[in-house]
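Hello Y.,

Per our agreement to keep a running log of every chain we model this quarter, I'm adding this entry. I've kept the format consistent with earlier entries: sequence first, then predicted structure.
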Amino acid sequence: MTAPLHETHPSGPGRRLPDTQQGMRRRNLARVMHTVSAEGPLSRAAVASRIGLTRAAVSTLVDELIRSGLLEELGPERPGRVGRPGSALAVSGHGPAGIGAEIGVDHLAVCAVDLRGIVRARAVRHGTNRGRSPQPVLVELTGLVRQVVAEAEREGLWPAGLAVAVPGLVARDARTVVRAPNLDWHDVDLGPLLPPELPLTVDNEANFGSLAELWLGDDTPRDFLHVSAEIGIGGAVVVDGRLLRGTRGFAGELGHVPVRPEGPQCACGGRGCLEQYAGEEAVLRAAGLSPGEDRVALLAELAAQGDQDVRLALRGAGTALGIALTGAVNLLDPQAVVLGGALAALAPWLRPSLERELARRTAGPACAVTVSRLGPEGPLLGAAHSVVRAVLDDPAAVAGRN
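Predicted structure for the entry above:
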């Protein structure tokens, strides 16, 4: 069975390869990488059987991937098999790594993920970024990136690229933040302000969170709405295993769907947006709590203890989420709504009112509402894994780059 190629950013090396002899070779290299990544360790013969190529052809491809440091041989397969044992192949624990970064309103985070999907290095800086100009924030982020890259290199890895998750709209050039209301950033090209030696991709944090759910989630369907919350509310739409990006790449801005058109002013310029009722700060206000670090954990703790003000605030947030999601569910008919980010930790108290609104307002049967196991790690992991997936999709593009 041919291993599927996966969603990557349109500007990345995962784009469609040309129908030439060279393009066919590159596609076959990708098929080998995806097969070993998904099912390995495997022998050459097992890979050949799964992708429908001759063993000789697969051996040539495998030798190239081993020379490039993308695959490694683990030694003979387990004893007891009939015939001469083949050498087991696995994705290398050395070689390329995906560097993921996240710019949050109240934190910066960076991690390195190897081709096996294992996080090998991580750095986090807590502190508000709201109202700060982009340059000092990106200087700090660059310092964290270099720290993580240095740690990864000590582990025998090298960075294949950098993907940055941001809480805002990103242009089709995959590096310019058009608008990030909760940071107060407008038309910021991140390219000149980040390490120039690393191929760069920038995308909305909810998009990366949804891709992480698609790639790493437990039995995630191929058609779903992903909703996450930190300071704001992020949304992303996955249709048939691919992100629905929209004409300008801005699809999924659920947080600025009006829930009550005459409601309070939002940072986006509108009124009564979902963020004003279900964002982290809105829930804290409704519960009578002040903003601060680890307030989501505090909300969950107080709700679990039976605090009625907190439970009422979360019930109201769930109602607002249900109202905002109704239009998307009626329009797109997804298999599920997946709650991620801070919503995952608060799901026990949000879901009942959210599900009631969906059941009451949707035209068809009620849509399933599930909870991500990735929680707030989703955007960072999705960013790093997007680089890894790009390597798997086109290993020839990174071979010999280091």
